[in-house]
Amino acid sequence: MISLRFYKESFFFFFLFVLLGSIQIAYAQELRIGYSSDKPPYQYTNKKGEADGLIIDFWRIWSQKNNTPVYFVATTSAQALLSLKNGEIDAHAGLDSDTSHDPTLYQGSAIYESSAIIFTDKNIEYSGSINKLNAYRVAVIQQEFTSQYLRNYLQNTAIVSFSDYPQLMDAVAEREIKVFAADALTSFFYLNKRNLLNSFYYNRSESLFTTKWRPTTLVSNKEIRTLISSGMKLISLPERNKTLRRWSSGIPHTNTGAIIIATPIKYPPLSVIGSDGKARGYLIDFWREWGRQVDRKIQFRGSVWNETLRGIKSGEADIHSGLFINEERKTWLTFSSPFFNVETALFYKSDKGKFPSLDKLTQGSVGAIDGSYQEAFLKKQYPSLHIIGYADLDRMFVALFQDDIVAIVAEEPEVIGTLNKLGLSGAVQKGEKLFQNDLYAGVLKENKELMELVNRGINAIPEPVKRELLNRYFPSGRNWSQIALWFGIFLIPLLFGIVFISLNNRTLNRRIKERTSTLEESEKRLWKILDNAPPGILIANSQTMLLQYANPSICQMLGYDKEELEGMDVASLHTPADFNQVSIEFRALAEGEKNTAIDIPFLQKNGTLLELDVNAASIILDKSPHLAAFLLDHTETRKLGLQLQHAQKMEAIGMMAGGVAHDLNNILSGIVSYPELLLLKLPESSELISPLKAIQESGNRAAAVVADLLTVARGVATTRTFHNIHVLINEYLHSPECEKVHSLYPEIACIENLEAEYSIIFCAPVHIKKAVMNLVNNGMEAITGKGTIFISTRNQRLDTHEASNLDIEAGDYLILSVKDDGIGITEKDLKHIFEPFYTKKVMGKSGTGLGLAIVWNSMQDHDGMITVKSTGQGTRFDLYFPIDTKAILEVEDIVPAEEFTDTNKHILVVDDEPQLCDIASKVLEGIGYTVDAVCSGELAISFVKDNPVDLVVLDMQMVPGINGYQTYKEILKMYPDQKSVVVSGFSESDEVKATLRLGAGGFIKKPYSVAQLGRVVEEALHS
């Protein structure tokens, strides 16, 4: 008999099993995945209103693998973490920021690693080094790390910030921006969208930095963490590669079933990309034949050499079309059977007769591609040989036919392709063979099945087809035994051919002359380019320092005629005092020790000194070494720099004036107000009336002076708006005030660690900068000798208990910390440090004791809190700023509704800032008006179409979308008599004036009081 207890236990375990299963099913029913709708092509909302992008595709695969439906919830980048922490989503699809400092968050393994790269217009010269970008304005996206990165490394370069990619692309399309640094795939997305991708050079293998996109959830969501982690591991390599290649150019490609072959674009005649964008060459035809043999679709992805290797590593391409084996590549690639043999040989002009071997060459120079393994081979095997490096074969052949070099060493296929392109086939003779390499296809090691397919296809190509391909691109053939056989069989016809060639020797000579003439024309074109180049160019003999060439630009810079400069020596362009250092720089440039010299003083013809930057390279001219120098005049740039310093100085004066005016206003209140009160009480016959009026008049004149000071301090108005505190901190740390403090304490360093993810606060910028300034100054004065000031930021959510201890509201906060390693503050003094005029410092030297009082009051104004901890090893101040606080209407701004007439009107408020919409709505509703609000010009047009209103309160600058002027024009088409009031944070701009000319009844500048807004609305309604 089975006991009743057994049944009960069985029923309990069955119930537990069902319960666990229901939990599993609950997850399987729906997982809410948040995504950033503004991060194309990683994650964004497409035109159909659906979630789309590379990371979204990974999650769709994840959903299939785990049999778990996914519901995508759109958020912005700024709202992502708040949505997660508020429980609106279960996980975020992928964040590109490191949240490891937040213990409440869990980030899984990286889904994708993106990179930021440099994009340069094809019409400008760029060597690939970011240090060479100082001649251009470099654009960045303001909120991306690229902006901070370049400002750190390119301090002498003009950095232009754009708020988003569409604005940047507008400037790119208008050719206002020719260089920009940004995320690679996002840039591809927008450049493709604007058909601008082919206008720019870029190299994804030379990234500035990389960013990893990681799925993110709460640490407390243990089941979801496990589900995400295990599910991502189920995505196979082929599935991953298919997704990556779909988005490899920033836009989705539907034909992802083809095998992608990475192909170099500059490897003639093996592989090149023509002006039509199509691949052609021996390797291209070879792989097309391979595709036919294995019955597979193929696509060619042409790019520069390093990019082809990166494409294989990332999985964006499957096969490398052809490369040599080396030890580094063996670590991650597997190689096919060799299918092509590349010879490296010596080549020289055909009219030179038989050329000696390299070990017997005693005169002349030999050319090789700069940085190539041919150059490395020559340096190792022939150390006494004079070798000149060239950027490409075209330039090397020009040097060969100008007799600057006697021979070149290069790969035979490249030589044949370049000669055919230049129309010089037959003008160059092949000399001794130096070495040869076999060409192999390359595939990732883990992709063994694909390598088997590669070898099977290569072996299946018929020999006649292979010979036909060789003859198509290498007409001379490569089967020397077969050629010898034909010579033996047809000896007599060959002799007749020789006779025929001899009879046509005159024709050959004519062709050589034509080709020589072509080279002379090329040389003329080269000199013409130099003559018209914007930079100044000087070419001087490296040994004699005599100038051989000067272009018109340098003649204009220095004030000489071309004939005067050419023939002068370098010493004549410098003062005797400067020439000693200049000669040292000249030798260093000529010997290749450096290629740039900054701020070299040049003597103009009129005796004025001009400082120029020099970029130079050694060249061979007339068989002797010369130095070619490109000279840039940055006088105007330096002038702008001085203007910037002056502007910063004026800003500092403005900050000081604002502070003085604030204190004087408190003093003047009594001087102006009390005489007025006394005058109201005194009889007209009183003798005190005259002196009181004099006091009052003096007070009014003093108030006018304060008003002038406030005018100077316009840039430091205490109006609160949204600001990035990191930007404000950096602005202070790079300000003249901070530099002055550093000059007083040269042994004290400031270290920043600004890692708060949410750094936007609602604040008065001048108060934030003053707070940082006072805390940094206090810290420096507390340090004796060497020391450090640490400035850091972080985000923290305070619960009710934590917030109550600080006497602030619970919620999300940004915490700004300033710490020094000085002597500390005594416990007795800690109780008084925030009191005005309480100081232990020397009056008149260190301050008045108002510094920390100002900081404390600023924190009160910002609904925050300041705390301090101090020991004998230093002091730390923590400033708590609330995140996402709402603007509060001041009580004194409220104006009784009865001051306004005819408030029974319907008003529409249009502003792209929701808080400003809310403020204006509350102001006008408080007066008595009926108010609606929308946050864009497009929504305003749509609203008034069906809901006519009496007045539109219209913000002028709205992003994104149309501005106030454009909005009002469209509304007037529907309602020609529509009344409107223009609101702007700026002065009356041209667009404001144009809107007023259209019929707008008034203009009010932000920030405004209730009375100001009410009165301008009333005036507009009755105009």
Structural summary, described in words:
Helix content is 43%, strand content 24%. It has 1023 residues and is α/β, with parallel strands linked by helices. The strands form eight sheets. Strands 1, 5, 6, 7, 8, 9, 10, 11, 12 and 13 form a ten-stranded mixed beta sheet that branches. Strands 14, 18, 19, 20, 21, 22, 23, 24 and 25 form a nine-stranded mixed beta sheet that branches. Strands 27-26-30-29-28 form a five-stranded antiparallel beta sheet. A hairpin with a 3-residue loop joins strand 2 (38-39) and strand 3. Helix 9 crosses helix 15 (448-460). It is globular and about 125 Å long. The N and C termini lie far apart (100 Å). The model is unreliable at 10-28, 476-492, 707-718, 842-848 and 885-897 (pLDDT under 50).
Straight-line distance between termini: 100 Å
- Helix amount: 40-55%
CA radius of gyration: 38 Å
Give the helix/strand class: alpha/beta
Number of strands: 42
User: How does the major sheet shape up?
Assistant: 10 strands, mixed
Model regions low in confidence, pLDDT < 50 over at least 5 residues: 10-28, 476-492, 707-718, 842-848, 885-897
Kindly report the average pLDDT value: 79
So how many helices? 35
Proportion of strand residues: 15-25%
Principal-axes shape call: globular
List the helices and strands and how they pair.
Elements: H1 4-29, E1 31-36, E2 38-39, E3 43-45, E4 51-52, H2 54-66, E5 70-75, H3 80-85, E6 91-95, E7 105-107, E8 112-121, E9 138-141, H4 145-153, E10 159-162, H5 165-173, E11 179-183, H6 184-193, E12 200-201, E13 209-218, H7 222-233, H8 237-246, E14 259-264, E15 266-267, E16 271-273, E17 279-280, H9 282-294, E18 298-303, H10 305-314, E19 319-323, H11 327-330, E20 333-335, E21 340-349, E22 366-369, H12 373-381, E23 387-390, H13 393-401, E24 407-411, H14 412-422, E25 428-444, H15 448-460, H16 463-473, H17 480-489, H18 491-503, H19 505-531, E26 536-541, E27 547-550, H20 552-558, H21 562-565, H22 576-590, E28 596-603, E29 609-621, E30 624-633, H23 635-681, H24 689-712, E31 721-724, H25 725-733, H26 736-744, E32 748-754, E33 760-763, H27 765-782, E34 787-798, H28 800-806, E35 811-820, H29 827-830, H30 851-861, E36 865-871, E37 874-882, E38 906-910, H31 914-927, E39 930-934, H32 937-946, E40 951-955, H33 964-974, E41 979-984, H34 990-998, E42 1002-1005, H35 1010-1021
Parallel strand pairs: 1-5, 1-6, 9-10, 9-11, 14-18, 14-19, 22-23, 22-24, 32-34, 38-39, 38-40, 40-41, 41-42
Antiparallel strand pairs: 2-3, 3-4, 6-13, 7-13, 8-11, 8-12, 8-13, 15-16, 16-17, 19-25, 20-25, 21-24, 21-25, 26-27, 26-30, 28-29, 29-30, 31-33, 34-35, 35-37, 36-37
Helix pairs in contact: 2-7, 2-8, 9-15, 23-24, 25-27, 27-30, 32-33, 33-34
